[in-house]
Amino acid sequence: MFTFVPPILMKREQRVGEGEREEAKREREERGEQEKRGREEKKRRREKRREEKREEKREKRREEKRTEREEREEKRLEDEDREKIVESEEETISKI
C-alpha cells in the first residue's frame, strides 16, 4: 500500500538527507586528511630514521679511519724507535 506523504515532509526529509550526505562527505574528507597526515608523518619518521642510520654509519667509518690512522702512526713510531736502537747498537759495536 502506498502512504501519502505531504510535500512539506518530503522536502524536510530530503533536506535531512542532504544534511546527512554533507556530514558524511565532511567526515570522509576529514578522515582522508587524517590518513594523509598520518602517511606523511610516517614517511617523515622513516626518512629521519634513515638519515640517523646514515649518520651512524658515517660516524662509525670516521672512527675506523681514525683508529687505522692512529695504528699506522704508532707502528711508524715503533719502527723508527727500533731503527734508532739498531743504529745506536751498530755504532756502539763499531766503536768497540
Number of helices: 1
Instruction: Please report which band the strand proportion falls in: under 5%, 5-15%, 15-25%, 25-35%, 35-45% or over 45%.
Output: under 5%
Strand/helix succession: H
What is the overall shape? rod-shaped
Separation, N- and C-terminal Cα atoms: 136 Å
Main pleated sheet: none
What would you report as the Rg, rounded to the nearest angstrom?
41 Å
Task: Give the helix level as a range of percent.
Answer: over 70%
Oligomer: single chain
Mean pLDDT score, rounded?
Answer: 87
Task: Note poorly predicted spans.
Answer: none
Which structural category fits the helices and strands?
mainly alpha
Care to count the β-strands?
A: 0
Description:
This protein has 96 residues and is mainly α. It has 1 helix and no strands. The longest helix has 89 residues, at 7-95. The termini are far apart.
What characteristics describe this protein?
96 residues; mainly alpha; 1 helix; rod-shaped
Characterize this entry briefly.
The chain has 1 helix and no strands. The protein has about 100 residues and is mostly helical. The N and C termini lie far apart (about 135 Å).
Note the topology.
Elements (H helix, E strand, L loop, with lengths): L6 H89 L1
